[in-house]
Amino acid sequence: MLVANTIRNTARLALRNGTGYLWQRSAPTNLTRTFSLGIAVRQQQDVVSVTFVRANGDKIKASGKVGDSLLDVVVNNNVDLDGFGACEGTLTCSTCHLIFKTNDYEKLPDKPGDEELDMLDLAYELTDTSRLGCQITLSKDMDGLEVHVPATINDARAA
Ligand code: FES
């Protein structure tokens, strides 16, 4: 009897809310919230923070997305590094020269190719852990990366 009353009352409520189906109103709202939260979490997971350290020790914090290059991070965050990335990533200037900590350098997935090595040879203050920022693609495990910016840059196109 109790079960029969519950079913009857549920049917009455469904008719009263005009939908004919009790859960139709709330289900889409809940789905929307879950979906939005999922996107927010995914976007947060794709963010990689990077700190650029100038020769004078000043630190500039920035962030990029997985798949961005370090040149993209500088451009998209308006990081004030004079002359950085002059050739816009076409491997003809060496102005995006950055110096990595040894640990970070060794974890980079790709070694520099011949074209990058040729450009690095023209960079000032070259070290064993130097790379060109336009050739480094961010991955999630680079989150918190700190790279040093040389005091002087050389635009190889000017030679
Ligand atoms: S931006 Fe010119 S070599 Fe990287």
TrEMBL record:
Task: List the cofactors.
Answer: [2Fe-2S] cluster
Q: Quick check: keyword Cell inner membrane in the entry?
A: no
Q: Which InterPro entries match?
A: 2Fe-2S_ferredoxin-like_sf, 2Fe-2S_ferredoxin-type, Adrenodoxin-like, Adrenodoxin_Fe-S_BS, Beta-grasp_dom_sf
Chain ranges of the 2Fe-2S ferredoxin-type domain: 48-153
Provide the protein's localization.
Mitochondrion
Keywords on this record?
2Fe-2S, Electron transport, Iron, Iron-sulfur, Lipid metabolism, Metal-binding, Mitochondrion, Steroid metabolism, Steroidogenesis, Transport
**Which biological process annotations from GO are given for this protein?**
P450-containing electron transport chain; positive regulation of ecdysteroid biosynthetic process; steroid biosynthetic process
**Major localisation:** mitochondrion
Could you state one GO cellular component term attached to this entry?
mitochondrion
| Parts forming coiled coils | none
Spell out the molecular function terms from Gene Ontology: 2 iron, 2 sulfur cluster binding; electron transfer activity; metal ion binding
- Keyword ATP-binding attached: no
Q: What does this protein do?
A: Required for ecdysteroidogenesis in the prothoracic gland which is necessary for larval to pupal transition.
Q: Which family does it belong to?
A: Belongs to the adrenodoxin/putidaredoxin family.
PANTHER family given for it? ADRENODOXIN-LIKE PROTEIN 2, MITOCHONDRIAL, FERREDOXIN/ADRENODOXIN
The name of this protein is 2Fe-2S ferredoxin-type domain-containing protein
Q: Which organism is it from?
A: Drosophila willistoni (Fruit fly)
User: Upper taxonomic classification of the species?
Assistant: Eukaryota, Metazoa, Ecdysozoa, Arthropoda, Hexapoda
